[in-house]
Automatic annotation (TrEMBL):
InterPro entries: Beta_galactosidase_Trimer (IPR013738), Class_I_gatase-like (IPR029062), GH (IPR017853), Glyco_hydro_42 (IPR003476), Glyco_hydro_42_N (IPR013529), Glyco_hydro_b (IPR013780). SUPFAM superfamilies: (Trans)glycosidases, Class I glutamine amidotransferase-like. Its EC number is 3.2.1.23. Residues 7-372 form the Glycoside hydrolase family 42 N-terminal domain. It catalyses: Hydrolysis of terminal non-reducing beta-D-galactose residues in beta-D-galactosides. It holds the Pfam family Glyco_hydro_42. This is Beta-galactosidase. Residues 382-560 form the Beta-galactosidase trimerisation domain. The keyword Cell division does not apply. Keywords: Glycosidase, Hydrolase. Belongs to the glycosyl hydrolase 42 family. The keyword Hydrolase applies.
Length: 626
């Protein structure tokens, strides 16, 4: 079964609408809803006084109508009494300003007070409903760290010091790792260490990096603490893979029973961003089917310009996620809010009711997903992996860099988009992950890499694989210390190149092969590699080095057009698309272990197309199966 539904927030509505809702859910083909996500102030209207009677009726109503509940712990939005009674538990920003109650996620992740009150309400919910017939899964919290990923208060400072003590064991080890000899920053007492609050000038990069790691770990710790209270039913939390970079999704993926994520369209090429986010979610779940917990039926409410979706776009977006491994297609939210900050966020049941485009498309999608039930459980195989490490992204985000225009996330997404345009489905992997199942591994932006990660890529290539490494990669170790002896540091031998100096660009630079480089260039010397393209002055721009049984390519710039380079390395690695398709037609295959497979052809263009002899009308999706 493909799970279908969305967030249901009945506490926003009079009780007489609840029965209408479940009847309409059945009409739309809804099989599951997430409930209780923002219900803390209704479940515990005053500290220590609980009201579950209304929620009993909600879950009973779902059970009576055969609709599953993904039951949330309501800890993402503490009620007004929490901030009023415990202002010291509210988050503090980098400038020392305490955030006040009035939105959501109004808490410090390291606050012992918040942790105690959150676990108390989570346990109350779990004790009451863990055996309810409608509850099939737990939805812990909601979008961890979306608005409070890092807190700089005194409680956070104390917790940060404890985290550092465990990590380094001694101040000598910390001082060495952080390079505190620079600018007279050597610590002589743990109490001297604070979060990287506002300073007179640049902060210590290693200090910043460890605080980002600590802050992510604090959120994972909160998840694990709630999860421990819930019992044997599976539990997850909705990540924002590919959109929210302040927490380490790999760490969360290790903690959840199944990966769930939210996705909303952004950027100039939103369908390419959707593909990246879906591939990332699938990879976080180890290649297994994953859950799309939220996306939108039409416009959202939080962008500067909130565009409504064109007819058919709701279906096209949903089936694109399904194609890339989702076994649940869910929306925020079921009934569009009448009041509050998200009243202009679209929903399955819009303000205008059932005589609407959105409702008709919602019902039609529910019926189609039911017809595609046999797709459930199948997986997506990929011959290509893109290396992505949050530590590297966080380290490179420090402002003291050769240029602020070389943005790691943008580069990673650009390389993924180049593969998307070539019709190549790819996984996302950490540098330390098992790479043996891939033919091609690309590292678009891996400024920081561990010795283990670097050796892993070397071994992959030596065993016959093909690698493509982007500029400014392999530069520092996990403490953000430069790897000496010439760049690209950890990858210098693998790539057969030694770089002595970086030359960020103020304008594009011409390449001898006819292309153009952007943003970045390097003064590189070939050691064992050969140049496949150069700058007009003869400096290497694209190199190829034989290493064991494989080859490693390196770019010293960001080509304006990656297509010919991707085509070359894919051909060298023996990587081919799932099917031949015209430009703008996305093709992905899902396969069962018994060999049954489903080919998704998603036409993002205004022109009709043909894929493997099957007509795919403009803007349409065609799924062919066994």
């Amino acid at each position: 079964m493909i799970v279908y539904g969305g967030d249901w927030n009945p506490e926003q509505w009079p009780e007489e609408t609840w029965s209408e809702d479940v009847v309409l859910m059945r009409e739309a083909g809804v099989t599951r809803v997430s409930v209780g996500i923002f219900a803390w102030s209704h479940l515990e209207p005053e500290e220590g006084r609980y009201d579950f009677a209304w929620f009993d009726r909600i879950l009973d109503l779902l059970g009576e109508h055969g609709i599953e509940a993904c039951l949330a712990t309501p800890t993402a939005a503490p009620p007004p009494w929490f901030g009023h009674t415990y202002p010291e538990a509210l988050p503090v920003d980098r400038d020392g300003r305490r955030v006040h109650h009035g939105s959501r996620q109004g808490f410090c992740p390291s606050s012992p007070i918040y942790r105690d009150r959150a676990l108390r309400i989570a346990e109350k919910v779990a004790d009451r409903y863990r055996d309810h017939e409608a509850v099939v899964m737990w939805h812990v919290h909601n979008e961890y760290g979306c608005h409070n990923a890092r807190c700089y208060c005194d409680a956070s400072a104390e917790a940060f010091r404890a985290w550092l003590c465990e990590r380094y064991q001694s101040l000598d080890a910390l001082n060495d790792a952080w390079g505190t000899a620079f600018w007279s920053q050597r610590y002589s007492d743990w109490a001297q260490i604070l979060p990287p609050r506002i300073t007179s000038f640049l902060t210590n990069p290693a200090h910043e990096l460890d605080f980002k790691r600590f802050s992510s770990d604090a959120l994972v710790s909160l998840y694990r603490a709630e999860r421990a209270l819930l019992g044997p039913k599976p539990a997850t939390t909705n990540l924002m893979a590919g959109a929210h970079w302040d927490m380490d999704c790999w760490s969360f993926a290790e903690a959840v029973d199944v990966v769930a994520t939210d996705h909303y369209l952004i950027g100039e090429h939103p369908h390419e961003d959707l593909a990246f986010a879906a591939d990332y979610a699938r990879s976080l779940n180890g290649g297994r089917p994953w859950l799309l917990m939220e996306h939108s039926t039409s416009a959202v409410n939080w962008q500067g310009l909130n565009l409504a979706k064109d007819p058919g776009e709701l279906r096209r977006n949903s089936l694109a996620h399904l194609a890339r491994g989702a076994d649940a297609i869910m929306f925020f939210q079921w009934r569009q809010s009448r009041a509050g900050a998200e009243k202009w966020h679209s929903a399955m049941l819009p303000h205008a009711g059932t005589d609407t485009k959105i409702w008709r498309e919602t019902v039609a999608l529910g019926a189609e997903l039911k017809s595609l039930r046999d797709v459930s459980g199948s997986t997506v195989a990929a011959d290509v992996a893109i290396l992505l490490d949050h530590d590297s992204v966080w380290a490179q985000d420090h402002p003291a860099q050769p240029t602020d225009r070389l943005k790691p996330v943008e580069v990673i997404k650009e390389w993924h988009a180049a593969l998307w345009r070539a019709g190549i489905t790819c996984d996302i992997a950490r540098p330390e992950h098992d790479l043996s199942g891939y033919r091609l591994v690309v590292a678009p932006s891996l400024y920081l890499v561990s010795d283990e990660g670097a050796a892993n890529l070397e071994n992959f290539v030596a065993a016959g694989g093909v690698a493509l490494v982007g500029p400014y990669s392999g530069i520092v170790d996990p403490h953000d210390r430069v790897r000496l002896g010439g760049y690209p540091g950890a990858f210098r031998d693998l790539l057969g190149v030694s770089v002595e100096e970086f030359f960020p660009l103020t304008e594009p630079i011409a390449l001898a092969g006819g292309g153009v480089g952007r943003i970045w260039s390097e003064q590189a010397r070939l050691t064992t590699a050969k140049a496949l393209d150069t700058y007009r002055d003869g400096r290497p721009a694209w190199t190829r080095n034989e290493w064991g049984g494989g080859t490693a390519h390196y770019l010293t710039t960001l080509p304006a057009d990656l297509s010919p380079i991707m085509a070359r390395v894919c051909e060298e690695a023996g990587v081919t698309p799932a099917a031949q398709a015209p430009p703008g037609v996305e093709v992905v295959r899902r396969t069962h272990p018994d060999g049954r497979s489903y080919l998704f052809a998603i036409n993002h263009t205004d022109e009709d197309a043909v894929v493997e002899g099957v007509a795919v009308p403009a803007g349409d999706v065609v799924v062919t199966g066994p």
